[in-house]
Design brief:
Elements lengths: L1 H24 L25 H5 L5 H4 L7 E3 L3 E11 L1 E2 L2 E2 L4 E12 L11 E4 L5 E3 L21 E11 L4 E6 L7 E6 L2
Antiparallel strand pairs: 1-2, 2-5, 3-4, 5-8, 6-7, 6-9, 9-10
Length: 191
C-alpha cells in the first residue's frame, strides 16, 4: 500500500513539473523583439527590365502569408475554437493599471486523436507589436476557467482564460502550442 502511494506521488510530481516546464520555459511573459537588418547584397549588373515589370508592386511576405483563421483551426491532432471574447478592467479583486485591461477568451479544445492534452499553460496571446502574454493569474477567479485535462479522441474541453493586454490593443493572435504537435493560431478581435 505504501509503495503505491509513493509511485502515485512521483507520477503527480512529474506531471506538475512537466506542466510547469511547458508553461514557464516554452512561453516567456514578455518577449523582446529583435530587428535584424539584412546583410548588404553585392551589386550585380542586370539587363534592363521592361517598364511593365518595374511598375508592378513588389511582393511582401505579408501578402504571401496564409490568412489567419478567426473561429477555429486544427493541426490534425487537436482542434482549437474560440467561443467568445470580452474585455474588462477587473476580475474578482484583481485590477489593472489604466493602460492595461483583461481580455477573457473562452476556448474549446477538441482531441482529434488520442493522447492529447488540453492546458491553459500552453495558450498565450500575441499583441500586434509582437509582445507575447501568457495567461493571467486572475484566470483562476473566472466563473469557468480552462483546466488541464487529457481528452480522448472526439472529446473536448472548454473554459475561459484571462490575459493582461494593453488598453489600446484591438486585435490579437491566440496561440496554442501543444507539446508534440504543430502550433495552432487564431486571430481574435477584442471588443
Amino acid at each position: 500500500m505504501r509503495s503505491r502511494i509513493i509511485v502515485i506521488t512521483i507520477v503527480l510530481v512529474g506531471l506538475i513539473a512537466l506542466l510547469w516546464y511547458i508553461g514557464l520555459y516554452r512561453r516567456p511573459e514578455h518577449s523582446v523583439s529583435v530587428i535584424q537588418t539584412p546583410a548588404p547584397q553585392p551589386r550585380v549588373s542586370q539587363p534592363q527590365q521592361p517598364v511593365a515589370a518595374l511598375a508592378a508592386p513588389p511582393a511582401t511576405p505579408q501578402q504571401r502569408a496564409e490568412p489567419c483563421p478567426r473561429d477555429r483551426t486544427d493541426n490534425g491532432m487537436l482542434r482549437l475554437s474560440v467561443r467568445s471574447v470580452r474585455a474588462t478592467k477587473q476580475i474578482s479583486f484583481w485590477t489593472l493599471d489604466p493602460d492595461q485591461r483583461f481580455v477573457i477568451v473562452e476556448v474549446f479544445l477538441e482531441a482529434i486523436t488520442d493522447f492529447q492534452i488540453a492546458s491553459p499553460a500552453v495558450l498565450w496571446v500575441e499583441e500586434p507589436h509582437g509582445t507575447e502574454r501568457s495567461r493571467s493569474v486572475a484566470t483562476g477567479a473566472l466563473a469557468n476557467p480552462l483546466w488541464s485535462l487529457s481528452p480522448s479522441r472526439g472529446e473536448g474541453v472548454g473554459g475561459q482564460v484571462a490575459f493582461e493586454i494593453s488598453a489600446q490593443t484591438r486585435d490579437l493572435k491566440l496561440h496554442y502550442d501543444p507539446f508534440l504537435a504543430r502550433r495552432l493560431t487564431l486571430c481574435v478581435s477584442v471588443p
